[in-house]
Design a protein that fits this description.
Length: 252
């Protein structure tokens, strides 16, 4: 079965460096052949070896392109070009830190990230779409339902990951030790963050998740003053993030 890594880039928030770094990091952490697909509205600056293709049209209204990640649902169309096999979708602001081969073989029609243990105590899974595994063409109802009623689904669900969680059916989740959050697992405690920066992820971590602010680029090309969200504090470059970024071809 083919292994396919998919990312999406639209608009101007993320430049080609994000795609190129993700591609290089995927090559470092996946053994054997795989395809790397970037669905995008602008393929300028993408590295050789990245297969660029247009984002399939779901007929979304313009405001749903700007709010949440609704275009991601195009990955679930019954057929996308010549793609077939097991897909691993990864958001552009994820940091690939360790071996990714097991992410292709964990069973389940859809594997998602459960952020519930990070933020809540009620034990209810909170599916996140930052990194997902599925068989191409295996969940067509997710595409057909948004095509049939984009406004109704957007009114019912806050964003695309809530839609997937509510409409997908059976969902499996990544082991918590594989995917860690910068905000909840690496960010230094309040006050301590005034004196030291974040430590790098441990060797058991496969993917480091960034969600909202700060973003990886804030630690790589830091603005003056605080790059974190008050009352949290971060300043200057984070050496291990700079090393990751430049080692995979990103520009400072």
């Amino acid at each position: 079965m083919d292994r396919i890594v998919i990312c999406m880039k639209w608009g101007t928030l993320y430049g080609p460096d994000y795609v190129n770094v993700l591609w290089s990091a995927a090559r470092e952490n996946i053994s054997g052949p795989f395809r790397f697909i970037c669905m995008t509205d602008d393929a300028t600056g993408l590295a050789p070896g990245i297969e660029a293709m247009p984002i399939p049209d779901l007929g979304l209204p313009p405001d749903l392109w700007r709010s949440g990640g609704w275009p991601k649902l195009a990955m679930f169309l019954p057929q996308i070009a010549d793609l077939s096999g097991r897909a691993l979708f990864i958001d552009l602001d994820m940091v690939l830190w360790g071996e990714l081969d097991p992410l292709f073989t964990l069973p389940g029609p859809l594997v998602m990230l459960d952020s519930g243990p990070w933020r809540y105590r009620n034990g209810i899974p909170r599916p996140m779409s930052s990194i997902m595994a599925f068989d191409i063409g295996g969940l067509p109802h997710l595409a057909t339902r948004i095509i049939a009623d984009p406004r109704g689904m957007a009114a019912r669900y806050q964003n695309e990951q809530d839609f997937i969680g509510g409409e997908a059916g059976e969902i499996a989740f990544w082991p918590q030790s594989w995917i860690r959050s910068y905000k909840y697992h690496l960010r230094p405690p309040l006050l301590i963050d005034r004196f030291r920066g974040p430590h790098p992820p441990g060797p058991e971590v496969k993917v480091l998740c960034f969600h909202g602010n700060p973003r990886p680029i804030d630690m790589i090309r830091p603005p003056k003053g605080n790059w974190d969200v008050p009352p949290h504090y971060g300043r200057g470059q984070v050496s291990w993030m700079v090393d990751y970024w430049t080692r995979h071809g990103g520009h400072l």
